[in-house]
Amino acid sequence: MKTQSRKLVVLSLVIAIATIGSSFVFAQKAAGTSHSSVTRIPSDNLRSNAFENGEELIYVAEFSRALLRKMDVADFRFTAAREKAIDSDARQEGGDAAYSLKLTGDVSSKGFFSKIFNVRFREQVESIVEPVSFTVQRTKRTEEHGKRARTSEAVYDRGKVFWTERDPNNPSRTPRTASTSFSGQVQDVLSAIYYLRKQPLAIGKSLELTIGDSGRVYQVPVRVVEKKRMKTILGRVEALRLDAEIYGPNRMLDGEGQFSIWVTNDGRRIPVSARVKTEYGTFDITLRKIIQNPTPREFLTKTIDGG
User: Fold this and answer.
1) Beta strands in 158-234 (DSSP E)
2) Which helix (H) or strand (E) is 302 found in, with range?
3) Where is 99: in which H helix or E strand?
4) What is the pLDDT of residue 253?
């Protein structure tokens, strides 16, 4: 499979994921929610930044093409938590010590798909986000595609992004660099979906994100195009479909394709599934497991499996 398709898989998976707050899951279990009904979350239980307390989501991506039925293509997990702010002397209103949001993503190929297409990849992304303005400050990425490996870092500062990429297998090789100007809020591929979670969404609404990737900055239009009921790990929920224009000339990915993500139609905006249609086939991405950390210092204290 071509390099472009490998990048497509990883990038699309990263864009598709966000974290889910634990209060919704346990409220649903306590209420004995039936999969035959539509789940609605009381507004007084909503906390738009609940993911800061520490959650981990596990998703599975499946690939299908023509007569080839769905097969697992990748596992990936994403976490969010607070950490000490980059500017350690900064203070928030009220005198509290400032903090940053640390978002991490880990995507890796799996199963029969890797053997058939000889596609083995792993990508790890770490994003540091300023939580008040919700703009990304730094992105670190490690990519492994077969024997090829790359590490990169992007720093966003005073309206410019500075990007550096290195080859860990060849330390003497001159690093690749790039810099681009931007204005206003900026996201990376991991923080963008967290930003979307915080926005009011309704059928017909459109917005445009500024996203930095590999030293370049892109404008990504997003439209809310559909509403329907879906069966998910969270029960039967009402969900909105968002289409993001990431394909085409001067977009994040060349060529033709379609990227859609389904989020719950409530204050939490939980991403429950996504679909990526390309010339190579269709990737369906589904939330499969939620691992909760009640505090940032605790590890995997509760596991909730779906299905």
Assistant:
1) 160-166, 176-181, 206-213, 216-232
2) strand 302-305
3) strand 99-109
4) 85
- Residue 295, number of CB atoms within 10 A of its CB: 10
The pLDDT tens digits of the residues spanning 202-216 come to 999 999 999 999 999
Task: Answer yes or no: are the C-beta atoms of 20 and 264 closer than 8 Å.
Answer: no
Helix residue ranges, H only, the chain: 3-16, 22-31, 111-117, 191-197
Q: What type of residue is 50?
A: A
Q: How far is CA 54 from the centre of its chain?
A: 15
Tokens coding 137 = 């400050």
Summarize the confidence of residues 213-225 as an average pLDDT. 94
Q: Provide the residue ranges of all domains of the chain, joining segments of one domain with +.
A: 3-305
pLDDT, average across residues 40-60: 58
Query: Model-level pTM?
Result: 0.75
| Percent of the chain scoring above 70 in pLDDT | 69
What does the pLDDT average to over 215-230? 95
Instruction: From 94, 5, 15, 105, select the one nearest 57 (Cα to Cα).
Output: 105
What is the per-residue DSSP string for 128-139? EEETTTTEEEEE
Three-class secondary structure of residue 299 per DSSP? coil
Task: State yes or no: pLDDT of 43 exceeds 70.
Answer: no
**Hey, what amino acid is at 233?**
I
Task: Assign residue 32 a region (left: φ > 0; alpha: ψ between -120 and 50; beta: otherwise).
Answer: left
Torsion of CA 194, 198, 202, 207, to 10 degrees: -70
Report residue 102's pLDDT band, with 50, 70 and 90 as the boundaries. Answer: very high
SS3 1: coil
Nearest C-alpha neighbor of 265 from the set 238, 228, 242, 241: 238
